[in-house]
Amino acid sequence: MDKGAYSIPQLVEDLKAIHARAKDEHEVIKLVRPLARRAALAKDSWLKPEMFQADAEQGFGFHLLHEEPDHSLAVFAVSWLPGRGTPPHDHGTWAVVAGVDGPELNRFYERVDDRSRQGHAELKQIGAKTFGLGDVVAMPTGAVHLVWNESDAVSVSLHIYGKHINFTQRSQFDQDKQTAMPFVVKVN
Ligand SMILES: [Fe+2]
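Above: the input record for the complex with fe (ii) ion. Below: its predicted structure, written as tokens.
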């Protein structure tokens, strides 16, 4: 596997080319997946110490590396404090995430309600997997997952979204209360 140089500007150029020619989201994800792995393995090209900083209140740190003027093709380095993570959530767009430093547990869910009641959601867990360096999680629009750092050190992953996730009206879910609420993150 290529562990050579691959900068974020190079990644963005490749993302733009894919976005321009891919016929649908399925094809975008298929083509972005190997780029995310390549960028993760080439972390020495772009990963900086400040990207390990995380917000103590939210439990993670979103470091914006790129977005287009219309908020599309958003790239973030995301850091995760030990023992912290997210509630189950969707993205309101496609998402391709690659492990960069440290293991991150992902749990995957399916929405089993009929989406007819505003603010109501029922989830069923359909899988779980821990991802490390170069491992890629690719999710179409509507996929639901959570991320958790079960290790005792800060972890970092590279997140590529079809659109900046604070501009997609996406949701976080409470599985016990069966609620859906807006999910906006603090971004560095
Ligand atoms: Fe996510």
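Notes for the reader.
Residues 89, 91, 95, 145 surround fe (ii) ion (CB under 6 Å).
The first strand starts at residue 60 and ends at 66.
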